[in-house]
Structure formats: C-alpha cells, structure tokens
C-alpha cells in the first residue's frame, strides 16, 4: 500500500509536460509579440515597408543614415587603367584615372547625382599644367581628392578633403561584375574596330544589339577611337551604368544573397574606404530606387583645347561646370512621406512640439517670420539659424513624428512644404521638428500681400 501511495503522489511526466504547454505557448506568443512590436516601431520610425523592417530586424541591415550619420554623402569615383610588363603581367603602379566621376548620394530621396569629368581636362598639379587624370598617378587618392575637388569647386569637409568617401575601380571590376550577373544587352550604334595587342584590347562591333560578356563590355566602355573620342567614351560608360542598374532591378539581383555576392566581386577589384556595413546599407536601401534617380549622369564639356608639356588638354566649359556642381550640392527631390491620419494631426498639441527653423531660401528674415508665426500658435521655438545652403526651392520639414510635421506644415500655411522622416541620429536626438524654409515661402508671401 505504501508503494501504491508513493506512486499516486508522483505526477506522470506527460502530465507535467501538458501543464507546461500553456506557459511555453504564452512565452512564445510574448516573444512573437515583442518581435513584431519592434518591426512595427521600425515601420513607423523609419518609414520602412513591412518586408524591409523584418529583414533589418532579423539580419540587422543598418540604414545609410545610421552608418554615415548624415543624410547625404559625396563620393569620388575613379576608374584606373593598367599596363603590362615584359612578362605580360598586368600592373597598376602609377596608373592614371581614365574614368573620373563625382557622386552625390542622397538618402531621404533615394537618389544620386553623377558628374563626369573628362580625363584630359586642363588643371595645374604641383605647379605643372597637365591633365586631371594624372593626379591619382602622382599622389594617389589624397592628391586626386584635392585636385578634382578644387577643379569642381566643392567645399572642404571636416576631414580636410572634398569627398566623404572614395571608390577606386580597377579595369577588371567591370568585367567581373558583368560576368557575375550573366552579361548585359547593349545596343551598339556605330562600327567599332580597334586592336591593341600589348594592352590586350580587341574591340570589334557593328551596329546592332549585342548580349555582351564582361570582356566585351570592358572593351566597349574603353573604346575612344572615333571622331567624338573621350566625350563619347564617357557617354558609353554612363550608358553601361544605366543598363547594369536596370538589370539589377528587373532581374532581382538586389536581394541580400546577391548583394553579398556582388560586394564580394567588388572586394577583389575595388579599393574603397567604405566599410562592409556602409556598402550593405547602401545596397539594401537603394535596391528599389528608380533607375532614373540613380543612374543619370552629366558630363562637363569643353570649349577649347590646349597644348601642354604632357600633351593636349581640354579647357572645360566653366558655365556648365558651375551649374552641374550647383545641382550636385543643392537639394534633391525628396520622396513624400505617407500622410498621417487627419485625426492624429488634429490631436497634436502645439505647446508640446519643439521646432528649429532654418533659412534655406536666402531671403533675409524668412526664418524669423516663420518662427514668429509658429510661436504665436503655441509652438516652442528651440532655435533659428541658416540652413546648409540657400538653394532650397521647397520648404522642407524633417521630423521623427510625421503627425507633428503635418501639423506644423498646416500652421505655417505653406501648402507645398514637404514632410519627410528625420532618421539621422545626431539630428533626431533633440526630438525637434526641423523646418527648412524654401523659396516657395517668398512666393506665397508675395501672393498673400498682393491679394487685397
């Protein structure tokens, strides 16, 4: 009987497991709830899609703003040539930069602007008048940054250079990249015949559509033996970039798996000061960007030629250069954020909203007038200052709380103002709504004055 009593007092293991199931299930539900709560928070805070938010939560792909700590960067892009030694081995010591581009990469608008510089553009390097592509050969990235930045008239940043990052691409990078994605279709518009046995370059095309492999694309992009010479070669390089961008998008080479593979290809043939997280953040953030927003490039033309000790240089079109650089440095078209619900906007209490007003219009007193308007409506004005430039055509409202941004837009009375999510950590930490007053403010003010 004692043994029987003892057996009755010990619950079966199956019974214990059944009792534990509700607790395990509850913990699982709590974990799932916390995960999707974090996903939802990312969707609201960063204005991400459901898929992007899940991927970033699981794989931890940072946003460009998180890794660069700003909303735009300027990148120097150089494509360097190489030669062959007596043993037919390629070497790139003291190479010149046959391809020169300046890129502005804007994160809020998910767009880029590219300005191409002709490699024979006339500059002075270390007291000698020569071609701009000799800067990299003489002093590497540092001298190239200085010479190209001065040539373009770009401002000097906190590091003492003109560009935030650089990308130096060896010739084989294009070949390897094209082969990695299975080739591209390129329309050829003229007959091309050129052979350079020493340089291992053989180009033979007739007008028509070609499915080119990496070696063919490399030759097509380097060809300059026609009447147009360098300007047409630059246009072909830009054409190849657009075709590559289109294939990456249409053929779905922009998922995380392929992004990792393509970054691996470039690691072999590219020298850059970008980190892996920076490359991954850019690749994932721009994977759905429109081709027109990321692949358009303009070339600085020339008005004359000049003989120097290093050969014939081209004199740049200064007026065109000034305009292209102004577009590169100026405001980009920002993608409009989803409109918050009307009830949420109406529920915003102005006295609980802190605002920083910046003058981006160049019109004297514009920021003071907008700040005064908001102050009379109950908002707390934390500061009034000039924006990073006076080239803002449209008033821009940056905020981490879109409902508060929409309420500010309604209260300042500038209907065309754009409300965009503020995701830069350093700027969003103050929790304030940042209003950058654009030139549309002056137009609306003048219209209001003329109405009576």
Layout: helices, strands, pairs:
Elements lengths: L1 H8 L3 H34 L3 H10 L4 H5 L3 E9 L2 E2 L5 E2 L5 E10 L4 E7 L4 E4 L2 E4 L2 H19 L12 E6 H10 L3 E5 L3 E5 L4 E5 L2 E5 L1 H9 L7 H21 L5 H14 E3 L3 H10 L5 H4 L2 E4 L1 E7 L2 E6 L1 H12 L12 H5 L7 E6 L6 H11 L3 E7 L9 E4 L2 H11 L5 E4 L3 H4 L4 E5 L2 H11 L2
Q: If you had to describe this structure to a student in words, what would you say it looks like?
A:
By secondary structure, the protein is an alpha/beta fold. The chain has 3 domains: 2-58; 64-329, LCP protein (Aminopeptidase), CATH 3.40.630; 342-450, 2-Layer Sandwich (Alpha-Beta Plaits). The protein is 44% helix and 24% strand. It has a 6-stranded mixed sheet with strand order 13-8-1-4-5-14, with helices on both faces. Strands 18-17-21-19-20 form a 5-stranded mixed sheet, covered by helices on one side. A hairpin with a 4-residue loop joins strand 10 and strand 11 (201-205). The longest helix has 34 residues, at 13-46. It starts with a helix and ends with a helix.
Task: Please give a handful of descriptors for the protein shown.
452 residues; Alpha-Beta Plaits; 24% strand; alpha/beta; 44% helix; 6-stranded mixed beta sheet
Summarize the structure.
This protein is an alpha/beta fold and 452 residues long.
Return the structural class.
Answer: alpha/beta
Backbone shape:
elongated
Would you state the CATH class of the largest domain? Alpha Beta
Which spans of ≥5 residues are poorly predicted at pLDDT below 50?
A: 29-39, 53-58, 423-429
CATH superfamily heading of the largest domain: LCP protein
User: Might you state the CATH topology name of the largest domain?
Assistant: Aminopeptidase
Rounded to the nearest angstrom, the distance between the terminal CA atoms is: 106 Å
Sheet having the most strands: 6 strands, mixed
Helix content: 40-55%
